[in-house]
């Protein structure tokens, strides 16, 4: 049998492969997420035992974070932090190319870090693992760069669906956060992967929900006012968390480069000390979220957990450990919401729902304020409760939290983290998925400049051969900066864009400047 | 030349399958890897699940140990850990709910128990705990409904049913609803099973609910079978309530002396010793007792008169006159005169109880004696 090789046949081959792959990647991403979660539990129990001593509580996160820090500084530098920003970069700047060592490394470091008690979430790393698996498989099957790129959100959605057991929210998160476009043609593929992943997850772990949620009821219309108050306070706390996280991380980044390997150990030591106060800040902490949802915690305990979790997560993340902020944002939200719920229960002159209902809405509120994925936040809580009645209070609280957070912290936390790493996304949302802004809008609002020039960049006057040479060193797209001031971003150029422009000028020489083949299009969306 | 009909289908198959054929080896390898990954993850999940169940058992054991030494909050924390490891475990859920009920955390206890009820609707322990939650809230209707659900659940043992009825009766008595408690206690008295402690408790509650006759029967049975201080005292008090003072004295004398039995015993002794109309005593003894009773109340009335004034003084004077007028008929000493005498002494004793503190057991005894014979046909 002869193998067809013409362009239409190649396209047909890719279409068929892509359909099959979305299912396979959904399954594999689901398996990876389940395995990741199980491995974290296994490592946690192995390291701490059933009832650890105080010494063990301090030593385990400290020692493990030293090992993790060395690995992060030497062989796996791209597995720091959550994984969501890196996945966004891979999708938006690197043509979806993620080296195979990234998902493997993230798996290993995530298991070690979260399993050793660092106050971090497993969903962000799962997203990176899923996206990395998808990209690796796409590269192995020699798909076109465009198709490899399309597989990234597919893998991310699959992994998140299994990690959090919310298939719809996973699809929305992939589109809202990774792709940045709710109208993306990838909707069908992400849905298929998400469904396949959840089927696998339930086949292995059963149908037990992640949280046992009490039945929700809006007892009195005036309660909407209380939920609005929760939204406002939640917005403030989201802001506090984001500012604290970014501020502390900036300080860690400002330290000399040779300290990079030891920085995670600082996080480990601080978290170890906090674990002495209460083991409730350990790891993902969904056990305690469940207790808040069921009204098992009293007001001072919930407030204390909220404050300690903010502190522990901020230090864990800012010091460079591998883990996410998805779960901590839900944890903080549950504790804050539960606290407000108890206060409302006690002092409101009208009948109110249980404090668990407020904890539930609080989870969505903090997620909307911190992660800034408003649709995902609403659907995620809706999927957890499967209760239509919660939608209105949830939307009221989430919207307020989102608006407050957006007003005082215009750059979403994942994008701000990337900016701290001198990575500038070509299409960054200020909240609206239809927002397209020029490259200059991406600069610091105060000065119009980036804090530091990108490590690897070109400027419009660079000869083409230099640009090609820089591409050989870069993982993905190249930032194009002003010749006069390297901290001013003019735009971003991808290899595909450069190739198509060069094809349009077949007689152009390698010494011609980049400006002859490329112009900033005026909008970042146009650069992609 | 016309193409055969199958040619179109073949082309379609070739168009759809052949492009994929080049990747079939890699795809097969990918499928195989996926299958292996699925099997490995499933194996790991089963293994982890087994470890989690073992952890849950350990946490529950720790909780039970903490509960046994009175560290309830620690026990609750341990049970919660157990629940986190194994959410569907009924034993952990019930242990947690029980500890929560004991500490008054009723809302959470109810949620845990509702989940248990959804998973195993016939779980008797869960239903009993739900009844206790309702009882702690003072919700009599809900508590009775849950107790009855537990009583009539399939597979309830006889002894367990007796315990449930006792618990229900205890709750209703605590709610000051003896009329509602009595049918349950009567039903409990007809239940077989139950050790001496349970039957003693039942008799005590019957006595409290006002059924001294059944209480006496149970106490007597217990006292005859294996005399215990509780059974003897209970039988004595039940007999005292029934007006069977001689029986009361016989049991109360055998029971150890303690506060709750002192008064009934002393009263019973006074009643038995001073009743002029008691059976099986001679005529002269009847006259002696009557004369003694009159002298006692007259002495008491005169003493009291000197210390009182106003309406009390008038009442005491009237009583003294009443007793004096009857005394004049004493030499006849026939049955009617004795009954009249007992009645007037009883009236005088009630006046003394009312107007001459502190209370005197002899006054009470004389009033009771009068009551006994006034109600006789």
> Strands of the biggest beta sheet of chain A: in what spatial order?
1-2
Low-confidence stretches of chain A: 1-5, 428-446, 521-528
- What would you report as the Rg of chain B, rounded to the nearest angstrom? 39 Å
Supply the helix-strand structural class of chain B. mainly alpha
Give the strand tally of chain B: 0
What's the oligomerization state? heterodimer
**Based on DSSP secondary structure assignment, what is the total number of beta strands of chain A?**
2
Order of helices and strands of chain B: HHHHHHHHHHHHHHHHHH
Q: What amount of the residues of chain B lies in strands?
A: under 5%
Helix percent of chain A reads 55-70%
Structural class of chain A: mainly alpha
SSE order and pairing:
The complex is a heterodimer of chains A (528) and B (377).
Chain A: H1 7-48, H2 54-74, H3 84-92, H4 101-115, H5 123-140, H6 145-164, H7 167-179, H8 187-205, H9 223-254, H10 263-277, H11 286-293, H12 299-318, H13 326-347, H14 355-370, H15 374-385, H16 391-408, H17 413-420, H18 464-473, E1 478-481, E2 489-493, H19 495-504, H20 524-527
Antiparallel strand pairs in A: 1-2
Chain B: H1 5-21, H2 24-68, H3 72-85, H4 90-102, H5 106-119, H6 124-136, H7 140-151, H8 158-174, H9 178-190, H10 196-209, H11 212-225, H12 229-241, H13 245-254, H14 259-274, H15 283-307, H16 310-327, H17 335-355, H18 361-374
Helix pairs in contact in B: 2-3, 2-4, 3-4, 4-5, 4-6, 5-6, 6-7, 7-8, 8-9, 8-10, 9-10, 10-11, 10-12, 11-12, 12-13, 12-14, 13-14, 14-18, 15-16, 15-17, 16-17, 17-18
């Amino acid at each position: 049998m002869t193998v067809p090789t013409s362009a239409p046949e190649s396209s047909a081959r890719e279409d068929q492969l892509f359909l099959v792959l979305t299912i396979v990647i959904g399954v594999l991403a689901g398996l990876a997420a389940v395995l990741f979660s199980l491995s974290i539990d296994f490592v946690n129990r192995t390291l701490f035992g059933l009832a650890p001593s105080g010494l063990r509580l301090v030593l385990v996160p400290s020692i493990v974070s030293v090992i993790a820090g060395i690995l992060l500084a030497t062989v796996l530098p791209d597995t720091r932090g959550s994984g969501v920003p890196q996945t966004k970069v891979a999708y938006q700047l690197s043509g979806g190319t993620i080296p195979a060592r990234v998902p493997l490394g993230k798996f290993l470091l995530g298991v070690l870090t979260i399993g050793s008690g660092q106050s971090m979430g497993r969903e962000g790393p799962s997203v990176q693992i899923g996206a990395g698996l998808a990209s690796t498989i796409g590269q192995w099957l020699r798909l076109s760069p465009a198709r490899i790129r399309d597989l990234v959100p597919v893998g991310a959605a699959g992994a998140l669906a299994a990690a959090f057991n919310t298939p719809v929210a996973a699809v929305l998160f992939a589109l809202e956060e990774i792709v940045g476009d709710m109208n993306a043609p990838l909707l069908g593929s992400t849905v298929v992967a998400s469904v396949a992943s959840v089927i696998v997850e339930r086949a292995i772990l059963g149908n037990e929900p992640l949280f046992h949620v009490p039945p929700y009821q809006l007892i009195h219309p005036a309660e909407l006012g209380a939920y609005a108050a929760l939204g406002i306070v939640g917005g403030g706390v989201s802001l506090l968390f984001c500012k604290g996280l970014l501020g502390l991380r900036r300080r860690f980044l400002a330290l000399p480069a040779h300290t990079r390997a030891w920085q995670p150990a600082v996080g480990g030591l601080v978290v170890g000390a906090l674990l002495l106060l209460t083991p409730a800040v350990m790891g993902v902490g969904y056990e305690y979220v469940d207790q808040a949802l069921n009204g098992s915690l009293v007001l001072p305990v919930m407030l204390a957990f909220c404050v300690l979790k903010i502190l522990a997560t901020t230090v864990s993340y800012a010091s460079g450990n591998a883990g996410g902020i998805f779960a901590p944002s839900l944890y903080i939200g549950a504790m804050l919401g539960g606290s407000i719920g108890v206060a409302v229960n006690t002092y409101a002159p009208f009948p109110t729902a249980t404090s668990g209902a407020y904890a539930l809405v609080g989870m969505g509120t903090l997620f909307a304020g911190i992660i800034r994925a408003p649709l995902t936040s609403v659907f995620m809580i809706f999927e957890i409760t499967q209760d239509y009645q919660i939608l209105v209070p949830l939307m009221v609280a989430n919207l307020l939290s989102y608006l407050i957070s957006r007003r005082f912290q215009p750059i979403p936390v994942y994008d701000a983290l990337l900016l701290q790493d001198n990575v500038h996304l070509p299409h960054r949302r200020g909240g609206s998925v239809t927002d397209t802004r020029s490259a200059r809008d991406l600069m610091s609002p105060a000065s119009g400049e980036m804090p530091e020039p990108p490590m690897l960049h070109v400027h419009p006057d660079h000869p083409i051969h230099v640009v090609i040479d820089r591409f050989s060193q870069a993982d993905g797209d190249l930032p194009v900066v002003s010749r006069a001031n390297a901290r001013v971003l003019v735009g971003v150029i991808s290899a595909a864009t450069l190739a198509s422009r060069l094809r349009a000028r077949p007689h152009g020489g390698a010494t011609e400047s980049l400006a002859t083949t490329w112009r900033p299009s005026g909008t970042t969306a146009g650069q992609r | 030349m016309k193409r055969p009909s199958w040619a179109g289908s073949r082309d379609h198959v070739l168009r759809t399958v052949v492009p994929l054929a080049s990747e079939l080896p890699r795809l097969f390898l990918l499928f195989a890897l996926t299958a292996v990954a699925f099997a490995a993850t499933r194996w790991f999940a089963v293994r982890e699940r087994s470890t989690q169940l073992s952890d849950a058992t350990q946490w529950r054991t720790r909780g039970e140990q903490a509960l046994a030494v009175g560290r309830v909050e620690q026990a609750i924390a341990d049970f919660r850990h157990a629940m986190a490891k194994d959410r569907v475990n009924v034993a952990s859920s019930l242990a947690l709910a029980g500890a929560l009920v004991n500490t008054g955390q009723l809302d959470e206890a109810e949620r845990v128990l509702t989940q248990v009820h959804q998973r195993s609707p016939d779980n008797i322990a869960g239903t009993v705990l739900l009844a206790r939650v309702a009882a702690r809230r003072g919700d009599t209707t809900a508590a009775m409904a849950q107790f009855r659900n537990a009583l009539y659940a399939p597979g309830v043992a006889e002894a367990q049913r007796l315990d449930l009825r006792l618990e229900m009766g205890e709750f209703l008595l605590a709610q000051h609803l003896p009329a509602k408690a009595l049918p349950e206690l009567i039903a409990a008295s007809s239940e077989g099973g139950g050790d001496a402690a349970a039957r003693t408790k039942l008799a005590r509650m019957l006595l409290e609910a006002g059924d001294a006759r059944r209480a006496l029967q149970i106490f007597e049975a217990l006292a005859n079978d294996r005399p215990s201080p509780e059974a003897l005292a209970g039988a004595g008090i039940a007999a005292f309530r029934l007006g069977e003072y001689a029986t009361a004295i016989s049991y109360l004398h055998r029971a150890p002396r303690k506060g709750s039995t002192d008064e009934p015993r002393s009263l019973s002794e006074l009643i038995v010793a001073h009743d002029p109309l008691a059976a099986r005593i001679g005529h002269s003894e009847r006259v002696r007792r009557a004369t003694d009773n009159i002298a006692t109340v007259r002495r008491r009335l005169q003493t009291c008169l000197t210390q009182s004034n106003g309406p009390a003084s008038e009442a005491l004077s009237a009583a003294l006159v009443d007793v004096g007028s009857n005394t004049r008929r004493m030499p006849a000493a026939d049955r009617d005169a004795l009954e009249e005498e007992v009645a007037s002494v009883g009236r005088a004793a009630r006046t003394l109880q009312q107007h001459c503190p502190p209370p005197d057991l002899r006054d009470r005894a004389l009033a009771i004696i009068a009551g006994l014979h006034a109600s006789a046909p």
